[in-house]
């Protein structure tokens, strides 16, 4: 179970230096925060010279604190004409500041005119204080801050990246020994790239010994301010110390990818790859984007809540928060998908669930801007309609028009996107360093080093996967006319959902009919949708009595789902090679599996495409580019398209 996130307490010493009462230590030297960051961490890691002319450079920091090291590094990157193309800064923090405290603490420490504006930009992007990984993007994505909120003793093991430089900046070993243990140094060694460097303000003997045992060489140099000495060094193990090498970018002759499918999954992948400079060819069997399930008039988005903060809850939390940031970034660039005002109400299934989850939210200390329990009376005020019982409210949840989001993402891709419609992919074949996509007549229709399958039910078949089981779920929506019901103030979900649309109609649904191929609108499905909504909103039943089901408009679409209800996101396995080595791989983990170089999937999103698509696309782009992953490794492995193959290998049934 995830531990509650406890924010830092902001305090100041008499000399104005920010101070941590819980660790009885200062956040930076009284001599100066900026000077300390530049001397200890930039100069100690030979930056900016080491990142110059690089495509990607990654810094891993232990202890984000006030963010001064990040701000100074960001400013140095901005000032360097020979800077790397993309700078990744990954930092762990067990006790993050609130946005207001971060701004207050940083402002007192930063007087430099080149850095002060960056403080406000960081504060404006500061994430909701919930556990997990938060990816923030600046400079149109060229500077990425990945914040990992939680205890570094656990979170460092969950990261997957190749670090080029380490900033070891926890509170002093005497005050915060948990950040200076052999286990921490071993975790860093697992993530160190070739000749990765490190720097730290301390020169304590235990730190020197722990680093050396983990494969780092160190040397003492003059310390900063009143400190006599500090440590700098590099990763230089004398022998192999890790089972898996940290990730590297996919080797390709040309940064060109084919994306099959232009629903939510495909368009998100298009946007994330073109944002990194990739050229993308999209293949779509229909005449336009978002014609299948992504063509519904609206979709709701919100995290999934559970009493034990399950894997599903953690993934949807990460996806929900990342999607909100990405949509806001699109809007900031002038690409505006149609979405409703913020706020979404979930009605509990019964009073026991309402009570239990209210206690859960309190135990996890979720902030009110993430989720808050509401009584029946509060729910009725929020909905402006009678409700059956209380539940919980997501202030940043809501609804969005999926087709408009897809269109915005494709527009953002600009000239890097080649759109090809009315083409149906049938199979792929590897020829030298390229994947060739063929249609049903055997004609080659596109070629590229990378193919991303974002075409739902057809993905596994076209890719030739045998261990990627999915099922089809028919979903029928019902549109209630404006005269049928009093307008809701916010979307309401629970047994069903009711979404107030701008034209005054209310979208309700959707049915969940497994392996039902019927494409026709059915009266019984309309009745089912209304009955489910009426269990949350009793007035709906009376208001819709005047309309016979056959008079109501609706839409049928088909969801693609897996047996574990989690999507397929990531690199495909080379199933033939894995099956050939089945005996050796019986005890394998995901990183042990052979992979089909250049093949990736983003499908089986079920009814949560809005929450999963952007994060899934960012994960795939990060895997391709060898960048830090945007979520914890165990969560990525829960989404891995190869997870069903892995289970078959462990059970001895792969063939």
From TrEMBL:
GO terms for cellular component: cytoplasm. InterPro entries: FAD-dep_OxRdtase, FAD/NAD-bd_sf, MnmC-like_methylTransf, SAM-dependent_MTases_sf, tRNA_MAMT_biosynth_bifunc_MnmC, tRNA_MNMC2, tRNA_S-uridine_synth_MnmC_C. Residues 257-622 form the FAD dependent oxidoreductase domain. Keywords: Cytoplasm, FAD, Flavoprotein, Methyltransferase, Multifunctional enzyme, Oxidoreductase, S-adenosyl-L-methionine, Transferase, tRNA processing. Its EC number is 2.1.1.61, 1.5.-.-. Residues 116-233 form the MnmC-like methyltransferase domain. Its cofactor is FAD. SUPFAM superfamilies: FAD-linked reductases, C-terminal domain, FAD/NAD(P)-binding domain. Residues 260-655 are annotated as: FAD-dependent cmnm(5)s(2)U34 oxidoreductase. Residues 1-236 are annotated as: tRNA (mnm(5)s(2)U34)-methyltransferase. GO terms for molecular function: flavin adenine dinucleotide binding; oxidoreductase activity, acting on the CH-NH group of donors; tRNA (5-methylaminomethyl-2-thiouridylate)(34)-methyltransferase activity. It is found in: Cytoplasm. It catalyses: 5-aminomethyl-2-thiouridine(34) in tRNA + S-adenosyl-L-methionine = 5-methylaminomethyl-2-thiouridine(34) in tRNA + S-adenosyl-L-homocysteine + H(+). It comes from the Bacteria. In the C-terminal section; belongs to the DAO family. NCBIfam families: MnmC_Cterm, PRK01747.1-2, PRK01747.1-4, tRNA_MNMC2. Catalyzes the last two steps in the biosynthesis of 5-methylaminomethyl-2-thiouridine (mnm(5)s(2)U) at the wobble position (U34) in tRNA. Catalyzes the FAD-dependent demodification of cmnm(5)s(2)U34 to nm(5)s(2)U34, followed by the transfer of a methyl group from S-adenosyl-L-methionine to nm(5)s(2)U34, to form mnm(5)s(2)U34. PANTHER family: SARCOSINE DEHYDROGENASE-RELATED, TRNA 5-METHYLAMINOMETHYL-2-THIOURIDINE BIOSYNTHESIS BIFUNCTIONAL PROTEIN MNMC. This is tRNA 5-methylaminomethyl-2-thiouridine biosynthesis bifunctional protein MnmC. It comes from Paraburkholderia largidicola. The gene is mnmC.
